[in-house]
Input
Amino acid sequence: MRSFPRTLRFWTALLMLFYWSAMHIAPAAAGLVPSRTSGETSVTSARDADLLIVERALEHKLVAQKLRDYGVAPNEVKSRLASLSDRDLHTLASASKGLPSGSDGVGVLIGVLIVILLVIVILKLLNHQVIVR
Output
């Protein structure tokens, strides 16, 4: 500690003491932030909510691929959705609530494989044998 003189240590410690005391004494201010809707997801009616649910279901890769296989273009899908009645749109939204929105499950599969790989690596590091038959 000879490179750091005693007086410099004293003043540094004193400065840090005052700094930490000021941080401890300073009042904290917290409050709620008002929410605002974005332009894309503003839902003003039940029809808009149902339309949003159906559009998210149609973003799923398997659903989009099946529609392409049947020869339905994405523009046709949007025009037909706009022309549906409220009751039909609600029925379609209720039926599509079980579908995942916008994903095909590859991320879940990769996550499971990483967990399995980590378990095998940990067992190897602990000198346990992993035998797969």
Summary: The mean pLDDT is 77.
